[in-house]
Amino acid sequence: SRIYIFGKDSRRRVYISSADFMTRNTERRVEVAAPLLDRRLADR
After folding, report:
1. What is the CA radius of gyration of the chain?
2. pLDDT tens digits for 8-42?
3. Residue 14 — left, alpha, or beta (φ > 0 → left; ψ -120 to 50 → alpha)?
4. How far apart are CA 15 and CA 4, in angstroms?
5. Rounded CA gap, 33 and 16, in Å?
6. Greatest Cα-to-Cα distance within the chain, rounded to the nearest angstrom
7. Which strand ranges, in their side-by-side order, compose the sheet holding 33-35?
8. Nearest partner of 16 among 5, 27, 7, 24, judged by Cα
9. Region of residue 39 (phi > 0: left; psi between -120 and 50: alpha; otherwise: beta)
10. Sign of the CA dihedral running 39, 26, 28, 1
11. Neighbours of 14 (CB within 10 A)
């Protein structure tokens, strides 16, 4: 899996996604990332 973090402090957004989020994998399928809304988990 992958973790993406955008912004900082109170504006920080954390997303989790498949580890295969690469160009070659997005040509014939859809890859998604989901927001990690539980701040306790995001802070880990």
Report:
1. 12
2. 988 999 999 877 767 776 777 777 889 999 888 88
3. beta
4. 5
5. 5
6. 36
7. 2-6, 13-17, 33-35
8. 5
9. alpha
10. negative
11. 19
For tokens 């580890």, name the residue: 19
- Give the pair of three-digit tokens for residue 42: 């995001």
SS3 for the chain is CEEEEECCHHHCEEEEECCCCCHHHHCCCCCCEEECCCHHHHCC
pLDDT of res. 21: 67
